[in-house]
Every structure is written in C-alpha cells, then in structure tokens.
Amino acid sequence: MSSSQVPQPVHVLSPDLVGVLKNRVEATLVALIKKNKHTRYFSESPVFAAFHSAIRDFGREDYDAISDDILLEAFRTTIPFTNYNSYEPFVAKFLTETCQEDDVRDMFSPGLPHHIAVTSSTSSPKPKFFCKYQHQDSMRRNLGDSGEIFWTFSLHYRQLVKIQDRNGDIIKTVPAGLGSSGGVRMLHGLEVENDHSNIKLAGTPRHSTLKCFHFIVKLSLTRGVVHFSDRRRLHPRLSRILAHAHTLCTRGWQGRDDIYNLYYVRS
Fold it and tell me: pTM for this one?
C-alpha cells in the first residue's frame, strides 16, 4: 500500500459514529452484566454490594426484567474502580493444591475457565492471575489471513490446574501461563490434554502438512516446527526461513519444556 493510499486518522468522530460507538459499548456492558450475574465474584465480592442494593430498590430480582438504561445507570453510579485486590481472593481458589469444582465453577463467568493468564510481574513483585473463559458466542480473532507472516509463539505453561469433582476425578485441566499462549490455544482449539499431538495442528486453516526442521525431544514434547501454507512459493525463501528458525531454536529454546510453532503464511 502506497503512502497515498493510507487512510488519514480521524481526530473527531462524527455524531453518527459517536452514536454507533456508544450503542456498541453499552450493549457489550449490558450483555456482560446479564451473562455474569450469577457468578461467584459478582454475587459475593463486596465491590458489587451497592449495585445489588440499587437493583433491589427497584423491586426486581430478575435483571432481565430491568431496562438496559437502569442497569447501566446503576453500574456507573455504584461500582467503583477496582484493582487486583478484589479479584485475588477469588482467583486464588484455582491455585490451591486441590482445586475442587464446587469451589471454582461459575467463578467469574459461567462454567470453568479455558486458561489462566499470568502477568509478567512488571508492575508488582509477584505475578497476577486472570481467568479466561470461552463461550460459544465469544469473538474469535483471525491472525495471518493475508500477506506474509513468520509467526512464532509458545504453548508453554507455568503450571496445570487440575479441577476435581466430588469423587476426586479430574474433570478439567486448565493451563496457567502467558496470555498469548492461552490465546493461541483458544484460537486453534489446542487443549493441553492433547499436547502430544498439538504440533500437528490438525484441521487448522491456512496451514498444511507438518514440516519439521529441528527436533528436541524432552518429556515426549517435540519442539521447533514449521508449517508452510504454500509449498509452491516456498523454495526461494526456504534457506532464509530455516536459518532464522534454527537460530531461534539453538539460542532461545534449549533446556525448556515448551512447544513452539513457527508459521510461514502467504496468501
């Protein structure tokens, strides 16, 4: 795209766009309130007490019977800005030695989390943990649909949270690690229980047959794999791609129990 084709930034939204943005933000907030109204965090955390009191003052227990305008006004006027202190006691239940389903189901959103994102501790001495959920109506991002991309990512996790039912059986294993790693797992349906076969990325769009250039086998995990979406256009760039990938492997990946995937995507 030439410089003349680059759209100029919009410094002030038109009234129509302001209205569209406002409606979208408010619709998203109302949807979140209604979806998460029965969660443990929303029901039990003190930061939401004034909100529940305001709703009761309208004589309605069912949020669906309350107009969106009233919900939004109550939310804005009663819920303060919060920080991790209100969230931490609830997410800590996932990090106990024995994580029970009855203690964590519907904690922040209906069901159990897909993964737990762990921060890098840049703003505090210890990392923060945030549960990430996946629902059928969740938005999915498309990455690398066009152009040329040499994309590296890790499926590494720092710990596995094994959620048990009342009989002591593990009903779900939740990886806790980098948010980007969990996002990749969610995007491609890469469940941690299937990590022995995840490097194949079976059925993943835009990626074809597995091409392995570097294997380091440890704990039954094979790392350093490349997927090529267009073999016919691969040859002119093959040596450069593999040289760069080999450098990444030998310098950055030795001694780690990660699964790494590199993509060369060309539409």
Answer: 0.70
